[in-house]
TrEMBL record:
Name of the protein described by the UniProt record: Cytidine deaminase
Keyword Cell membrane part of the UniProt annotation: no
CDD domains from the UniProt entry: cytidine_deaminase
Domain CMP/dCMP-type deaminase as annotated: residue spans: 2-134
EC number(s) given by UniProt: 3.5.4.5
Catalyzed reactions: cytidine + H2O + H(+) = uridine + NH4(+); 2'-deoxycytidine + H2O + H(+) = 2'-deoxyuridine + NH4(+)
Protein's organism: Gemelliphila asaccharolytica
Enzyme class: hydrolase
Annotated function: This enzyme scavenges exogenous and endogenous cytidine and 2'-deoxycytidine for UMP synthesis.
Keyword set includes Metal-binding: yes
SUPFAM superfamilies according to UniProt: Cytidine deaminase-like
Length: 137
């Protein structure tokens, strides 16, 4: 199967595990590492609200904590309740976290299903002019 379709279907599966008693907005992510490893994530909310973590960061932190930090692309799917009929773009915090680990070729795929998705270049289309570790030198 085409790799993008595979990642999209894994993100849709991961989304089913979202813990969202407050927003009911369910997000799934699927991260492909350069070595072929794949990590999925869902959003996990909290009664205290601010500890909530997005699906993208769940996937990225899973990968980092398993020793993988070279990433190729990430798929994001999201929508209210069971619905999945619009594209869900990553929040600003997730953009900053993604930015920490990716190079100029990293892709982000916003998907509704395996036949309906958009591919973006992360640095060019999603997060230009970000603050990075280079700025600290
Ligand atoms: N959310 C994500 O998981 N990823 C995004 O890119 C956008 C927002 C989650 C956070 C919260 O649980 C819910 O969606 C509503 O904001």
């Amino acid at each position: 199967m085409d790799i993008n379709k595979k990642l999209i279907n894994l993100a849709i599966e991961a989304r089913k595990k979202a813990y969202t008693p407050y927003s009911k907005f369910n997000v799934g992510a699927c991260l492909l590492c350069k070595n072929g490893e794949i990590y999925t994530g869902c959003n996990i909310e909290n009664a205290s609200l601010t500890p909530t973590v997005c699906a993208e960061r769940t996937a990225i932190f899973k990968a980092i904590s398993e020793g993988n930090k070279d990433f190729k692309k990430i798929v994001v799917v999201g929508g209210k309740n069971e619905k999945l009929n619009d594209f869900c773009a990553p929040c600003g915090v997730c953009r900053q976290v993604i930015s920490e680990f990716v190079n100029d070729n990293f892709e982000i795929i916003l998907a509704i299903n395996e036949n309906n998705y958009k591919v973006y270049n992360f640095r060019r289309d999603i997060f230009p002019l970000g603050f990075t570790k280079d700025d600290l030198d």
